[in-house]
Design a protein that fits this description.
0% strand; mainly alpha; HTH_TetR; 77% helix; TetR/AcrR family transcriptional regulator; Tet_transcr_reg_TetR-rel_C_sf; 10 helices
């Protein structure tokens, strides 16, 4: 029997994650049954769970992938730019449902919370490094510790995600982000 190439396995894994993202976004974690995952991905449970231990492993892999994408944008362009991109190109942010599900599970599932705290460190680290670079360049306020700025931006991000998810994305949110950006800039 011929071996399956690493490229084929990576492509299949990516295909599963893309379908699972849609399924979790539409039905939530609990509603994303194995049958729905099969329907959304177009693959059998055997094909899905060949790549992932179980549904929880699939969700964690998906959440980790999405956090890595967000960390990359935050590291290069800043967390406020991530939020601006969410408003300008909502179709590019199909992971918002995943983020909401993560928030729910962090409140209700202690085991998930322990595993997620390890995986979410990349976004926090990327944000901290970006803020430190901006502070060193004299662009950001230096009267507040970086962890306070990170907490503030995370709070705004969570609020923005909740607004978008509730269908209120067009209510002057761009102007609100202008205000957020201005509030963290250095005052001369």
């Amino acid at each position: 029997m011929p071996k399956v190439s690493e490229d084929h396995l990576a492509a299949r894994r990516s295909e599963i994650l893309d379908g699972a993202r849609r399924c979790f976004a539409e039905y939530g974690y609990d509603g994303a049954t194995v049958r729905r995952l099969e329907e959304t991905t177009g693959l059998s449970r055997g094909a899905i769970f060949h790549h992932f231990k179980d549904k929880d492993g699939l969700f964690l892999a998906l959440a980790h992938e999405d956090a890595m994408r967000m960390a990359d944008v935050a590291a290069n362009q800043g967390l406020v730019q991530v939020m601006r991109d969410m408003l300008a190109q909502p179709d590019q942010f199909n992971w918002l449902g995943t983020r909401l599900e993560i928030a729910r599970r962090l409140r209700t599932d202690p085991e998930f919370a322990r595993g997620w705290s390890q995986r979410s460190a990349e976004l926090t680290e990327a944000t901290i490094k970006r803020l430190e670079r901006q502070k060193s360049a004299g662009r950001l306020r230096d009267d507040l510790p970086t962890d306070v700025l990170v907490g503030y931006l995370d709070l705004v991000l969570d609020g923005l995600i909740a607004r978008i998810a509730s269908g209120h994305a067009g209510e002057n949110l761009s102007a609100v982000l202008d205000l957020v950006e201005e509030s963290v800039r250095r005052r001369d």
